[in-house]
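haha ok so turns out i had the wrong file open the whole time. this is the CORRECT one, sorry everyone. sequence first:
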Amino acid sequence: MKIAIAVPVYGVEQYIARCATSLFEQTYSNIEYIFVNDCTPDSSVAVLNSVVEKYPNRKEQVKIVSHEKNRGLAAARNTALENCTSDYIMHVDSDDYIDVRTVELLVDKLKEDDYDIISYNFKVLMKSGDEIWKHPECSNPKEMTLSILKRNVPVCACGRLIRTALYKDNGIKTIEKVNMSEDYSVTPFLFFYSKKIATISAPLYIYDFRNESSYTHSISANKVNQDWQAVEHVESFFAPMGQEYVTSIKYAKMLYLYRQLIDLSMNNTKENTELFYKLRAKLSGFTSDDIKMMPFSVRIVLMIRNIYILKAFVKIVRFFK
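then structure:
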């Protein structure tokens, strides 16, 4: 069975060698490597090519596909899918890496049953110390779809082996130029159309959260708008299916507001302050019963109306933590 590993490449000259080495040293042999060069402005591709030369047994398995202009992470994911000829695909971000046994363990799991998606856990490298992020032990696709819609579980495409036909047969792709929450706009659909899912408990994906230049480490009006584009895309499909889907998406919306309001309060430029109050206005679309279903910490943040009071509150909470 052939497994594809898709890797977007942009501005990662410090990390790409580590990532590529972990992929080329996989203990499983039948792998298709798809690197998408999104017009990286640095020497990432040169570094990647130098690593490829060290693994002549893998060289014929490597595709480096280049965009003619920078199009963003979402487009890079779509390009990888368009060039995929494998039964299954897994996504690895180029500033992360995976355990060398990952593909072998996933294929061994596939031998147990004809799974559409297999999730595996994360080891997260943080400045404050490493953490383990776990996927739930869930075998029910609908239950998993609802959990992802709520954002109660990891929504990322990374850390999962996915049957390629789920994408291609159901027309699933990321929304180009929506590079924040791009996984939220895709993963619920993958689980919705899946029939058999499984989880491997081992933390095989090493997620480096220390890269402060990463797209996820800053906030702006553009990124906030992308988050809400992804939510609206998901809502337009799932909301007509019934109240349990509507409730799950409402939960996710309030989590988005919670995180965005905190981030904006801690980076309160004039633009971010205006955006803070614009986002707070979205709360008028929720009832008191909606808000009551959220954890206490979320409810507190959503109740604070002033950006400076929220900033002080967050600082106090972080101090005592």
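The beta strands are 3-9, 31-37, 62-66, 88-91, 97-98, 117-125, 131-133, 160-163, 197-208.
again sry for the mixup
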